[in-house]
Amino acid sequence: MTRASLTGTRIRERRTALALKQADLARGVGVSPAYLNLIEHNRRRVNETLLEALAAALGVDPLALSEGAEGALFDGLREAAAEAAPGGTPPEAERIEEFVGRFPGWAALLAARQARIGQLERVLEGYSERMAQDPFLAATLHEVLSAVTSLRSTAAILVEAEEIAPEWRKRFHLTIHEESLRLSDTAEALVGYLDTLDEAETGLSSPQEEVEAWLEGQAYHLAPLERAAAPASEAMVAGVPELASGAARKLALAHIAQARTDAVALPQEALRRALATEGHDPARLAQALGVPMATVFRRLAALPPEPGVPPIGLVICDGSGTLTFRKPAPGFALPRFGAACPLWPLYEALSRPMQPIRAVLDLAGRVPQRFLSFAFCQPSQPAGFDGPQLMEAMMLILPAPAERAPVERPVGTSCRICPRGACLGRREPSILAES
User: What CATH number was assigned to the domain covering residues 3-104?
Assistant: First the structure.
């Protein structure tokens, strides 16, 4: 049963809630009670004109009758179905809409549990990734292992040696005491560090993450810079709680300076007019507006959020492949530690400077998703011809078009949490089971 086939059920539920008689509603929209009865039992389809008349009579939006309020449940239930253990009775994925219509309470409960499972998995992945990459955790765990090894060897000597001189026994006891204190202090520091991550879940361990947390709070759109009389950069970062370190404030000032230059070169109104005629192709937009491609990339990612319009993601890296800017797109997670997927067009662009790359990405996951990406690399000579050439690549991430692309590039987030087993670019085994 398709989602649209439940329109009659929603009409009947809404009419019952309003205590309307079927004959009265039928008379109000100009159909017979018998025909409305067939509609309410999902035996007749409703054309657009009749749907609008019914919605007006029932005081609801037509979309609420055609799509229902349960749309958010479908994705969660499909994800739960995709994670069903192999070998058992497979869930009837084609009847999800019917299940939601008949048992909305159970459907909401199952979808909520699935969302909670996904949230916990993301936390676990984040901790695993941090355990593998965080230098503080690596040093602390090494300290713990060192203290445990020292305690074990000293205790073994005391147990296995039958006769030990009193002065040596005193030394061994002192060693055990000192190592136990070191182990206790190190474990306490480790627990405190992990508790901080659990409370703030941002894990702001670097100036870049502080800046990104600040930008996320602004929806990556610095509205004051769009005005003619924009405030001073120092005033925009003064007293910002996310920018706790001096290094973070310095990075934020650099970002504001670049955003201010981009806003002057490409005003938001001009960009929107060009989007209406040229679409989201950055090369066509740059040609139509007479601005550098990199400016178009950054300005597209800085557009303010609009209801019903998915935000555009942007990733920037330098010549080493290190991600220097991360604005995630919904459903396209970005690694916080370690390297990203080597199959991203972002890295391909580094080897093809000034050549734009367009690719439809098939992102691995329990519920695979598709995205449209545009990548571009631009070299610079900040020290002139005698200085080094620096590379900066950037990749826009947008929802994929409805039609399937002839060739779609399979990618992941990072090797450590990518379930795609037969990937030629894999650097290390995944902590996730093979899908």
Answer: 1.10.260.40
Q: Is 362 helix (H, G, I), strand (E, B) or coil?
A: strand
Contact 312, 303 (CB under 8 A): yes
What does the DSSP 8-state code read for residue 320? T
**CB under 8 Å to 364, separation ≥6 — which residues?**
410, 411, 412, 413, 418, 419, 420, 435
Measure the CA–CA gap between 77 and 394, rounded to whole angstroms.
Answer: 35
Out of 130-134, 227-231, 394-398, least confident range: 130-134
The Cα 398–Cα 122 span in angstroms is: 22
DSSP character at residue 319: T
Helix (H/G/I), strand (E/B), else coil: 104: helix
Cα 252 from Cα 234, distance rounded (Å) = 9
Which fold does the domain 306-435 belong to in CATH? Beta-Lactamase (3.30.450)
Enumerate residues 6+ apart whose C-beta is below 8 A from 398.
280, 310, 312, 313, 329, 371, 372, 373, 374
pLDDT tens figures, 55-97: 888 887 776 677 654 555 677 777 777 776 666 777 887 777 7
Question: What count of Cα atoms within 13 Å lies in the side-chain half-sphere of residue 135?
Answer: 2
Can you count the helices (H) and strands (E) in the chain? 17, 6
Token pair, residue 95, equals 């009847």
Higher-pLDDT residue of 22 and 434 is 22
Please state the domain extents for the chain.
3-104, 135-200, 306-435
Report which DSSP code applies to 27: H
For residue 286, which of 300, 305, 269 has the smallest C-alpha distance? 300
Side-chain half-sphere CA neighbours of 346 within 13 A = 30
Contact (Cβ atoms closer than 8 angstroms) between residue 357 and residue 350: no
The per-residue pLDDT for range 119-170, each reduced to its tens digit, is 777 777 666 666 666 667 777 778 888 889 888 888 888 888 878 888 888 8
Strand order across the beta sheet in which 323-327 lies: 323-327, 313-318, 390-399, 369-380, 357-363, 408-411
Q: What is the pTM of this model?
A: 0.60
The 8-class DSSP code of residue 329 comes to B
Structure confidence at residue 103 (pLDDT): 81
